[in-house]
Every structure is written in structure tokens, then in C-alpha cells.
Amino acid sequence: MAQQVVLENNLEYLSLSKPKRVLFKLKKFFTGIPKKIGNFFTSIPQKTRDSRSKFLQIFKNVAHAMTDGDYKTRLSFLFMGAGLVTRRQVFRGVLYFLYEVAFIVFFALVGFPSLRGLPTLGQMAEVSYIQKGGGDTVTSIMHDDSFNILLYSLITIALILVLIFLWYNQLVDSLRLQREAYIGRYASDKQTIRNVLDKSYDKTLLFIPMLGLALFTILPIIMMIVVGFTNYNAQHSTPTKLFDWVGMQNFALIFAAGGDGDSKLVLQVFLEVLLWTLVWAFFATFSNYFLGMIVAMIINIKGIKLKKVWRTVLITTIAVPQFISLLLVSRMFSDNGIINGIAGNIYNAITGNTYTNISFLGDRWLNKVMIIVLNTWVGIPYTMLICTGLLMNIPEDLYESARIDGASPAKMYFKITLPYMLFVTGPYLISQFVGNINNFNVIYFLSGGGPAFTFGTGTVVPSIISVTGVGRSDLLITWLYKMSVDSTAKEYGFASVLGLMIFAVVAFFSLIFYGHSNSIQNEEEFQ
Amino acid sequence: MNNEKKQNYRSHKRAILTRNIFVYILLVLISIIWLVPFIYLVAQSFCSVYVGTYFFPYLNLDIAKDMLAGEVAAGRILAEDIRPETFPIFTLENYADLFGGLTNNPSAFANTYPFYRWYFNTFIIALITCILQTVLVLGTSYAFSRLRFSMRKGLMKLILILGMFPGFLSLVIIYYTLKLIGLQGNIFSLILIYIAGSAMQYYIAKGFFDTIPRSLDEAAMIDGANKNTIFFRIIMPLAKPIVVYTLLLSFNAPWGDFMMGRFISGGEMQQMTVAVGLQTWLTKGQIETNFPRFCAGGVIVSIPIMALFFVLQKYYVEGITGGAVKG
């Protein structure tokens, strides 16, 4: 069994029983926190020294290129790639130069005006007016658009950083080629091609994925964080309206300060949604995990026939798109759905009384239970599939010797099967937990987030709650969705703050889990 | 002595038999629980109307009248109420409605909801996405698993952290950005978004590559192969399960994705995917008439995916057990 990687060869640890070991680990983690923080701060001087010397090295290199460089290298100060083109690396040199030209054009036309508008986010919105003498409606040509200003400013800043990086790189490269020429080694375009397929193969493979990541994930995330400091919503929607910086106002809203109505309610609703998100993620993850494992074990029992048939039946749920099965099941359990219909008929036939429909997915408490139960219907087949193969990997002689020692099946499960499975599927379990925190489909399609929050009469409900239609079974992610898509208010500013909160929660749990997962820490051991 | 042994053996056998009977009952129960919704889906797709209390449709009107005769006699149902509009009667209309837009004179329903178009959109998206995404995911995974470069750990950490942000929020920004360049409400922008996220999905394939012995690479390198050759000639042939797994997963994702599809389509009927389109039939006030059509659509969507799944099931299991977990 691959359990050797566990903790260190701590005698104290090894002498403990299983549950005590977990406690010991937890205790060690928490008592270790102050030390870790201490280590972090004591390592700062060394780290700053390291990064400072690295930083200084950059300037040294640039100065070096200035003093020792020949005219080709010095030319690259102004014209990027000049030092490469003149030294037979035409292809790369031309690419550098093209970037420079493109940047200058972009900066002059778009970048500079945007950066200038950044402090105010625009002053004049688009206006339409009817021409004198009853002509056509005319839209103002010169107008600001806060969204564009913000977006283009960020893009410009990113492009400037890339420019600096490329400029430095080509300078150092030019200097390197100059040195190599001294000893009679000349570069060529052929060498570039060879490098693309061998020495710099990582760059070749990662270029497009990382470009996609930068444009479609990193840039939007930065933009989203920035929007959190503005009042961007339906009332301040471009191009006919402008939005503006509001500082920490959106953050203050969540922590019961400012805003209209009873401001404490926002915090109360937020905490309730957060609590349900965590409760849901916990139960959804572990109910699926254990039930799926049990189903896999049942099918794996020796002597049970038609194993393939049982598995195939379960796998149909994976094969049917989730939204179809979820919407279907939510209809079956709805107030006048088939479950209530049949139950009503049976109840009626037996007692003769009229049957009142059970609100499986509408009741405040019942729907939470139902969501978790119905989620197992979706999730068990996945776990079953993963566990089936792994269960067969457990060496049979372990069970054999346990049986000879007279261990009961329950004992074998807790002492052999479970520890093995937990160890092997650790990373899977973590990703499931994080995935469930952001599980949009199950909640949105089953209950739609309902029922709505109700407050005592006379309370002034803050608009951020009333307009976004948050319900008692909403997760943070579905609340976010309602806020920015379903509701007409489009509270992007607040949504971005909520998004950061989700990030904080997920990051917190991931850090704890990842720090304790052996297979992640010891990556290289598996090769 | 011998007798006692025999008796022991017999009681043991009986215990196993009772256990097996119990297990079979359990398995049959599980199968019923998992299959009933699908039988319901198929049954409802042939109904003329959705009525909550009926699981199956009546085969035709005469049978419905016969079977409901008792109820009519008791006065609970009026005889003239037994019509296809109020009782679920078997019909193929729902399927005809889905593809009605392709005929010369489509019904009003088929005119408003171009299901065949959604189906075609989703198929194109799934096809392009699965090919490009697989290439990018495998490339990224190979780089992280096999190549050693200075940014490796940093990039992997960065991707881990980026994955913690709710991806949906950046979608709002992407939507407005696409709007700026006039690409919103377009299936190709959806493809772009799916592909751009490829790097985030390297985990499973990397886990799989990690299990392939490094000595193979080293042997090839000594023979003078460059890294590109190693990737295509050595690793790829060994990684067939993970290639099929990635293809299958990225082909299936667009069929089930609702959140992004809905947002990007912006309510434009012609640019919807099946998930977005079918959901519009279940909004309030539409359920009675449209639920059977939704079911028919669900059946049509599920068939190819199910077929693909069953054919490639072996690879799926190998890929996920080889990549998701390491022991």
C-alpha cells in the first residue's frame, strides 16, 4: 500500500491510533500556523535581498548593453529587433519590430486617450437629439464610454508591461549574439526553428493556451476586481450613462454599512447564503462519495452476476446531459408533478381523503434535503465509475490476512478499504468540494434558488436584496448569476465583491486541503 | 467430524445465498430508481399534453375513453372533456414539431423555436471545441508533466488560483468585450470562450502523463529525438485512453452547458444551444404545452451522446482512473 509517504517518521505519531492521528495532524497544522507566519516574516529580508539583486541585475544588463554593445545592439534600444535582424535572426527580429510598431499605433489611437480618461471614467455620455427643424435623430459622435475606458486602459497597461519585457529580452539576446559572434558562432533562422521544436518546446506548446488564459481569464478577472470599486449597474450602463469610482462602497454594503434600507439585512442574507453554500458543498461531496463507493462495492461483490448490466444502468445518468435530467427530475418533484400525482392517487384510494401536495422543492427546509438527495442521483454514478477500478486494485491478500485474523467486514472496510480509497482519491475529493461550492446547475435547475427570503412587516428591505431575487436555497454562485443576468438591475459592482468573497472561501479550503494532500506535495515521486 | 464440516459448509452456503438475494433486491431497486426518470422522459415525449398525474400516455382516444369510463360514470370527469388537449394521448407530434422548421409549412411552434438550428449549433460547437480543446489540453499537460522550465511551478500555481475565481463573473466582462468588437450572440464566440479555458483543464491529462515512465523519454532522447518527436511518437501512442477521454469530455460539455450559452446567446433564438433553448420551454406558463416537447428534445439530444458514451466507455474509465487519481 502506498501509505509510506504519510507524515514524517515521527514515533509519537506512529504510536497513535487512527482517529488520534487525524487529531494530531489537525493540531499540528493549527499550532504550526504561528510558526509559518513567523517564518514568512523572517524570510522577508532574505527574499527582498534576492529579488533586489535580481532586479538590479536587469538594470546592470541594460547598462551593459549600452556600454559594451556595438552599434547593432545600441540600435535595438530604439528599434526593437534591430540587433537580431542584422545578426541573421531575421524572423525573430522582424516579429519584435512589428510588435513595437503595432504598440505605437495602438497607444496613439486608443491607449493614450483611455489612460487619460481613467481617473474620471469619462465625462460625457452618449446623447441623442433631434435635429433642428424636425430632422432625424442624431447620436453624438464624440462621447465617453466608461466600460471602454476601463477595458482599454487595462489592455494598454498590460501591453506596456509586455513591451518592457520584450524590449529587455531582445536587448539581452542581441548582446548574447554579439558575444557569440566574437568567438565565431553565428545564429540563423534555422536555429530558431530547431529551438521551437526542442529547447523552447515549452513555449511552443504553452503559447496559445496561455494567451487564451491571459485574454479570457486573467484580464476579465482583473477587470472584475476593478469594477468592484465602481457603481456599474443597470442605472449606470454604458453607452447612454457613465459609471464612476465609488471606492469601498460595495464592500461596505456587505459588511452592514451604508446602502438603503435595513443595512444589517445584507450581512444577514450573505451569511445565510454562505452557510448554506458550505453545508451544501460538504453534504453533496461526501454523500456522493460514500454512497458511490458503497454501490461500487456492492456490484464488486464476488458471485454477483450481470455486473456489466448494473454498471451500465447507472452510467446512463452520466451520458444524458445534466440539464435534461435535472430539469426532468425537478418537474417530477414539483408541486403538481408526477410524484405528488401518484402519491395523491394512492393516498386517496386508501384513506378517501383529499391529498395536499407536498412542496418538495419549494419548502424552505425540505427543498434543501431534497436537493442533496436528488444530487446523489446525479453524482453516485461518477463515483461508482471511479471507485470500481480502484477497489479492484487493492491487493486481495490484505483482505485474506484480515479474514484469517477474524476481522469483521465493517472492520475491514474501515481499516483497509477506506484508508486506501481516501489516500488515492484525495485530490478528486478536493476538486469535488470546490466544484460543489460553485455548482450552478443543480441548484438553478432543481429549486431555482427559492423560496424567497421573507422579512417581518415594516422592515425596509435593502434594494440589493429585493432586486436580485435571492432565495433561501441559493448558493453564492446562483445569487451572483441572478444579480448579473436574471435581474434587470444588473448590479455588477456588488456582484464583483460577491465574486471576490467566493474566491476567498474557495481559496481558504483549497489551501488547507492542498497543504495536506500527499500526492500533490510529492508530485515527482510518481514518475 | 465429517458431518459437522458438511453442515458448516452448508450453513455458510446458505448465508451467502441469502446475502446474494438481498444484494440482488438492492441492485434491482437501484436500477429502478435510476431508470424511472428516463422511462418517464421517453413516455412523456409521446404525450399530447402534460398532466402531472399521468406517467404514460393513453395509446389512443378510444382506449382513454374505455379506461376512464368508470370515472365518467361516477361523474368525476365529463365525457366531452376526454380530448387530446386535456388527457395525454400517444402522439408523434412533439418530434415532428422539433424538426418542423425544416419542412415547407412549419407549425407556429416550429417557427418560433428552431430546435433543428439549436441542435446544429451545438453539434458544430461541440465538434470544433473538442478537436481544438483536446490539442491544447494535451499540449499543456505534456508541457507541465514532462518539460522542465523556469515558470513551470509558477504557472501551475497561477492556474490553480485562477480556477478559484468564479469563472462566470469574468464571463460578464467577456460578454461586453465581445460586444465591443461585435461578436456577441454568436456561436463562434462561444467556441472561443470554451477553447480559451483549455489551459485550466490540464490536471487529469497531466496526471495520466505522469504515470508514463520517464525512462522512455530518456531512451528516445539518447537516440537523438527532439522533444516534439518524443511527444508525438512516444507519449501519444501510449496516451490513447486520455486522448479519447479528453475528446469525449470536451464534446459533451457544450451539450450540457447552460450558464455561458445562455449569456452569450443574449436571447437570440438562432444562436442558442440546445441547453439554452430547451430551458426556455419550461418557463412559467409554458409547461403544460411544452413539457412533452422538452422531453422529445431531451431524447433526441441524449441519443448520440449516450451512444458515444457506451462505445467509448472503456477509454473513459481508463482515462479517469489513470488521470484523476494517483496511488
Entry summary:
The complex is a heterodimer of chains A (about 525) and B (about 325). With about 525 residues, chain A is an all-alpha fold. Chain A has helices spanning about 10-15, 20-70, 70-80, 80-85, 90-115, 145-180, 190-195, 200-225, 250-255, 265-300, 305-320, 320-330, 340-350, 365-395, 395-405, 410-425, 425-435, 440-445, 465, 475-485, 490-515, 520, and strands at about 130, 135-140.
SSE topology sketch:
The complex is a heterodimer of chains A (527) and B (327).
Chain A: H1 11-14, H2 18-68, H3 71-78, H4 82-85, H5 90-117, E1 128-130, E2 137-139, H6 146-182, H7 189-197, H8 201-227, H9 249-254, H10 264-300, H11 307-319, H12 322-332, H13 338-351, H14 366-393, H15 396-404, H16 409-424, H17 426-437, H18 440-446, H19 463-466, H20 476-486, H21 492-516, H22 518-521
Antiparallel strand pairs in A: 1-2
Helix pairs in contact in A: 2-6, 3-6, 5-6, 8-21, 10-14, 10-17, 11-14, 12-18, 17-21, 20-21
Chain B: H1 2-45, H2 61-67, H3 69-74, H4 93-98, H5 108-112, H6 115-146, H7 152-162, H8 167-180, H9 187-196, H10 203-210, H11 214-222, H12 227-238, H13 240-256, H14 259-265, H15 274-280, H16 287-323
